[in-house]
């Protein structure tokens, strides 16, 4: 089966979604990401969706679920590169991407993750 | 038409190739990359092919041609993430990816680009 590659850059994992997601692919991605976070100890996950022209409720749920899984594994997820038209449609559809953080592009997403890491105090 | 997204991170552009390339797509990618290098002034191009299970002479030529275009625009191209089986097949087929630099993964590719930038003396 076709799997979406996960690139590691330091403490951050980067996923570029380029094709329309199907059930199996979304499940495989969640699985692969969870494994990779746990193996690598990554602190951040960047998901680039700049290639997507449609984000429906299925993709919205997938993004929320990846965010949730990452959070439990102590990593922050940031969705980047959303096209303006996609944002408009999401709001019109009443999909608010609850619990999903976003940034304009990969660079801003990286900054957000770096800022987050600096803010987080060490466990007492 | 489906276009492969190009992500910018500082002075580096990152392209993840996830699907089998066709003529039109390869031409569009070359075009987009050339434009993006010239607009952004990027110094490096990382092409991740970890998702590809087959690299034939068409893809090989595309990688060589992207390297050539980037070089003229004063950017270095590094192909990263090649699967071991792909490397074996390439050599067996007699395709040596002439003029294409490679690195094991994105992180090593980034290091190579950073190292290159430090080495290059400023124009006299």
Automatic annotation (TrEMBL), chains A, B:
SUPFAM superfamilies: SpoIIaa-like. InterPro entries: Bact_StressResp_Reg, STAS_dom, STAS_dom_sf. Residues 2-113 form the STAS domain. Signal peptide: none annotated. Pfam families: STAS. This is STAS domain-containing protein.
């Amino acid at each position: 089966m076709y799997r979406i590659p996960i690139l590691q850059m330091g403490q951050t994992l980067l996923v570029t979604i380029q094709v329309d997601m199907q059930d199996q692919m979304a499940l495989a991605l969640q699985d692969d990401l969870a494994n990779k976070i746990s193996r690598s100890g990554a602190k951040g996950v960047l998901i680039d969706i700049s290639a997507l022209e449609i984000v429906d409720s299925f993709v919205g749920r997938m993004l929320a679920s990846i965010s949730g899984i990452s959070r439990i594994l102590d990593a922050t997820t940031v969705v980047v590169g959303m096209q303006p038209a996609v944002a408009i449609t999401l709001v019109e559809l009443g999909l608010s991407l609850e619990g999903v953080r976003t940034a304009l592009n990969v660079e801003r997403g990286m900054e957000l993750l770096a800022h987050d890491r600096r803010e987080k105090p060490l466990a007492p």
